[in-house]
Design brief:
The chain is of the alpha+beta class. The protein is built from eight helices and eight strands, in the order H-H-H-E-E-H-E-E-H-H-H-E-E-H-E-E. The radius of gyration is 18 Å and the shape is globular.
């Protein structure tokens, strides 16, 4: 099964299943029938839900063709995945892999947590987060939420940077969202830098 295959090749479930599908094999997620609160993102009525929503936007992956939602973090940050797992009431395991980083020419230890549920995926889509979240993020709904600041906290944890020695904070997102953030905080001395396509740094 997929679980055993991942152990053999020491790679992520998405990578293995994509390769197998390309070769004509049919794959089913080994977490398909797991237990969880499928209404978790129906209402963003807590600090934790808002935070994890921001984390999914930054470090998550939403499948285009299945109901799978995956969050991958550095192994040292696996306690965050454990907190999400407990809050959403899932019995899925957090899995650990070594992934090769071509830019740094070394292996990184990562922790991966995934769930597969159509309600979760639909609620994320309704909140503006889809499989193409890097280029398109519809933030109107979450921006009106009273826990919006905790959503930003999760987003900065994943796609942000806080300088140790300077009064500098940076965030990577779509141009539309970063324009909104500049107006939201009434920033006057900030500039957007284009990285690629519709991805910018504030």
């Amino acid at each position: 099964n997929l679980k055993e295959a991942c152990k053999v090749v020491n790679f992520t479930p998405d990578g293995v299943s994509k390769k197998l599908r390309n070769e004509g094999f049919r794959c089913e997620s080994f977490n398909k029938f797991s237990h969880l609160d499928y209404k978790y993102f129906e209402k963003i009525d807590s600090e934790k839900k808002a935070y994890f929503l921001g984390l999914i936007l930054s470090d998550g992956n939403i499948s285009k063709t299945t109901n799978r939602v995956v969050i991958g973090l550095n192994k040292k940050d696996s306690y965050i995945l454990d907190a999400f797992k407990k809050d959403i009431g899932s019995d899925n395991a957090i899995r650990y892999y070594s992934v090769f980083d071509k830019r740094k020419n070394k292996y990184n230890s990562v922790s991966v947590f995934q769930i597969s549920n159509i309600n979760i995926k639909n609620d994320l889509n309704r909140l503006g987060i889809s499989h193409d979240k890097s280029n398109k993020f519809y933030f109107t709904t979450i921006a009106k939420n009273k826990n919006f600041n905790h959503f930003l906290r999760g987003l900065v944890d994943g796609d942000g940077y806080i300088s140790k020695n300077k009064n500098r904070v940076s965030l990577i997102s779509t141009k539309e969202f970063l324009d909104f953030i500049q107006n939201y905080f009434r920033f006057k001395r900030t500039k957007l830098y284009k990285l690629k396509d519709n991805i910018y740094r504030l």
